[in-house]
Amino acid sequence: MASRRDFLKTMGIGAAGLAVPSIGSAMPNLMNSMERAAAKSRKVKIAYIGIGNRGEQIIEDFKRTNMVDVVALCDVDMGAKHTQKVMNMYPDAKRFRDFRKLFDEYGSHFEAVAIATPDHSHFPIAMHALSCGKHVYLEKPMACTFHECQLLINAAKRHPEVVTQVGNQGHSEANYFQFKAWKEAGIIKDVTAVTVHMNNPRRWHGWDSHLHKMPDAMELPKDMDWDTWLGSRPWHDYNKDYHLGQWRCWYDFGMGVLGDWGAHLIDTVHEFLELGLPYEVKMLKATEWNEFFYPYSSTILFRFPARNGMPPLDITWYDGVDNLPPLPAGYGKSEYNANVPSTNQGNTPVSKLNPGKIIYSRDLIFKGGSHGSTLEIINKDKAGGLQFPEVPQSPSNHWENFLNACLGIEKTRSPFEINGVLSQVFSLGVIAQRLNTQLFFDSRTNEITNNPFANAMLTGVPPRKDWEIYYSDKL
């Protein structure tokens, strides 16, 4: 375990920077054509943290940009079957099991990291990277607790020279640019309700919801650094049902369906309708609720106040194969978005209803899918006379956008200061799920006012010894 002295030493290495010229802090609007050409002429030196499963997918996405020089690989299960492909792709990259050693021993060799680890470990790794002055691409959700999200937001503000991007890739696709253009043109206005649904089967559907304790200890795989995998979380003995995507279902490690898919379904609604934080979160349904893993099905109501001339808005979230939302007349077929990346959950589209959203405004009803899927108007007869603006094409996909920002050419579209508040919304929803209750939230004080235990969950359980160094607003 790295000591505080080791960590501060690492920060010193990060501050020293790389031997290569660093122009990541240059403002895009200050770069002339010659500067842009010079920036484009070099590759971003990157280290990957979490290289199996989803990590492998984003590594392939970065590879396709032809804009990276991969100098290091880090994974607690280095050498296991699911990490072999990436290891073979980059045989000359330096290898690490512990991200702290990666930064401490090799931090001077790279300028950016891409983090694709389990949800509970996003926070300490991202905090470490920010403190070392490294640009951060972080898979969603940004963190697990409200407090962790706030610490990351604050750290990003303290390090304006560092580029951050959260991995909700639809924020660089057609959905983002269409929603922004339609909002600015007054087509999307006076929205009062949004239905969001993700009804695909999940791995924990069918698990025993009457269990009375966490799973028993199992033999640890020989290549696994379990202590680092746990990170700041309290000690749990290894069990296969915590690993390789299984972590997503446990309250102690993952953010469930909401954390997994909310960033792909609610992101543009949240940003462009300026929702901020809700004043109420209420569980309307929790099928097979228990204290350890997420319900088979959940219906959650998020209530947002009026803001900047826009009316109050309710978001109702539906997940679970047996928990389909009501659909408006004329909804039509549920289209499957072929651009949704495959997962180890299984990739068969739901025949009844694929992931998406329904947006209810005063006059119009909009239907949308997930990720980059664009909106369509259901009640088109009420759209007569509207002038639809030209929607610009995306200048870069999400990975190119991050790398261009590292080079000073663009600004990221889903930085911590934008995505962090959305992740805080998810953390409030998870508290409501875990307690199966109603919460009242005061965004002026960032407190849950009707439930002291739930209010304590905004911070979460204390970190393990030697991990508390990350939970500081001074890094």
Question: How would you describe this protein?
Answer:
The protein is α/β, with parallel strands linked by helices. Helix content is 29%, strand content 16%. It contains 14 helices and 15 strands. The protein has helices at 4-16, 33-40, 54-65, 84-89, 99-106, 122-131, 146-158, 174-184, 226-230, 256-265, 267-272, 398-406, 416-435, 452-457; strands spanning 44-49, 68-74, 94-96, 112-115, 135-138, 164-166, 191-198, 280-287, 297-304, 313-319, 356-361, 365-368, 376-377, 438-442, 447-448. Helix 6 (122-131) links the parallel strand 4 (112-115) and strand 5 (135-138). Residues 1-5, 7-28 and 345-350 have low confidence and may be disordered.
Q: What letter string, H or E per element, gives the SSE order?
A: HHEHEHEHEHEHEHEHHHEEEEEEHHEEH
Low-pLDDT sequence parts: 1-5, 7-28, 345-350
Residues in β-strands, percent: 15-25%
Taken from the alpha-carbon principal axes, the silhouette is globular
Distance between the termini: 18 Å
Discrete helix count:
14
Radius of gyration: 22 Å
> Residue share in helices?
25-40%
Which structural class best describes the helix and strand composition?
A: alpha/beta
Q: Mean of residue pLDDT?
A: 91
Strand order of the largest sheet: 13-12-11-7-10-9-8-14-15
Tell me the number of strands: 15
Largest sheet: 9 strands, mixed
